[in-house]
Amino acid sequence: MKIRTVLMALAATSMLSGAAFAAGANAHDTNHPSSREEMSAKCSTLESQYDSMIEGKLNAPKADKAEGLHAQGVNACQSNNSDIGVLKLERAVRDLGAKPAA
Predict the structure, then answer these.
(1) Which of 21, 68, 73, 76 has the least C-beta neighbours within 10 A?
(2) Which residue has the higher pLDDT, 102 or 75?
């Protein structure tokens, strides 16, 4: 009788933890674009935003740093590392004093 109770408790715990794990995985996925097309679009949007801003900010205090981040971001985006590229491009735009559009 005790073995049956232990097995039932183990089965119930297993089902509950599986459901909790699945719910946690789905919540994480909603925060990040799921496809390469979405990330590629973000790269393009951020590159355009940076290009339109840099013209008037070449003498800005962080312009050199932003230029380096921009180059790294573009390279990452072109190398199928769009997630890293987006982060670098967002930082470059912030260094120029704007909020990233994507």
Answers:
(1) 21
(2) 75
